[in-house]
Amino acid sequence: MRFRFIDEGNVTPAFAIGLKDFIGTGRYSSEYIVATKSHKNLSFSLGLGFGRLASYGGFSNPLGALHQGFKVRENRESGVGGEIEAAQWFQGNAAIFGGIKMGVSDRLDAKLEYSNDAYDLEQSYFEQSSPWNVSAQYRLSDTFSLGVAWLHGSKAALSAHLSLDPKSPANGPGLELTPTPISPRSENTGGPHRKETDIVNLQKVLSVDGLF
Q1: What's residue 171's pLDDT?
Q2: Is 86 exposed, middle or buried (0-12, 13-18, 19+ CB in 10 A)?
Q3: pLDDT score, position 208
Q4: Of 121, 116, 63, which is closest to residue 90 (Cα–Cα)?
Q5: Deepest of 126, 135, 153, 207, by most Cβ within 10 A of its Cβ?
């Protein structure tokens, strides 16, 4: 869950606060504060992470200057999840993360990221030899894109992304007009015979489906 509490201005960056795995088992439990600023085709992000997002390159929590309780993060044991443990939020060590996104073209983006996740729980099957990740993403349409990446200095990845806006569903909101009724073609059926096409209503119905 992420909430942007300050929008980007001409000089000032946008600020957002986020929570990860705050109702789950705690394996990925983390919190962060991040600032993002755009300039032309570049976008810069710099953030401070806590919990799992402070497992690589961590240092003493700067929030400890406000209260000593921020300096210590207790181990979370919540079984299969389902419990919100807000008392842990933003506690324990902190670590810096950041990234740069460059718009190479209208459809192609390149990204460079510095990660502060050490993947301690995955060491038995996953090797992290570098905190740096690099990727490229190509948008085939407004909703679909393909990506390629080199991750953690040891893994190549391919990905596909589908983005949907609940406020603007691809097939409309479910309140479409019904199709124009088809009149009988022959008067032998006993029904009315329309000699001229109702152009106005027909165009209105077709335009809802994007047909002109």
Answers
A1: 64
A2: exposed
A3: 82
A4: 63
A5: 135
Q: Give the 3-state secondary structure of 51-87.
A: EHHHCCCCECCHHHHCCHHHHCCCCCCCCCCCCCCHH
pLDDT surpassing 90 at residue 174: no
What φ, ψ does residue 53 adopt, rounded to 5°?
-80, 20
Distant-in-sequence, close-in-space partners of 147: CB < 8 Å, separation ≥ 6 = 135, 136, 137, 138, 157, 158, 159, 160, 161
Q: Token digits for 209?
A: 């489906």
Half-sphere CA count of 28, side-chain side, radius 13 A: 7
Phi-psi region of 172 (alpha: psi -120 to 50; beta: other; left: phi over 0): left
As to burial, measured by CB atoms within 10 angstroms (0-12 exposed, 13-18 middle, 19+ buried), residue 188 is exposed
Give the predicted TM-score (pTM) of the model: 0.72
Tell me the average pLDDT of the chain. Answer: 87
Q: Which two tokens stand for residue 196?
A: 């001229």
Where residue 79 falls among pLDDT bands split at 50, 70, 90? low
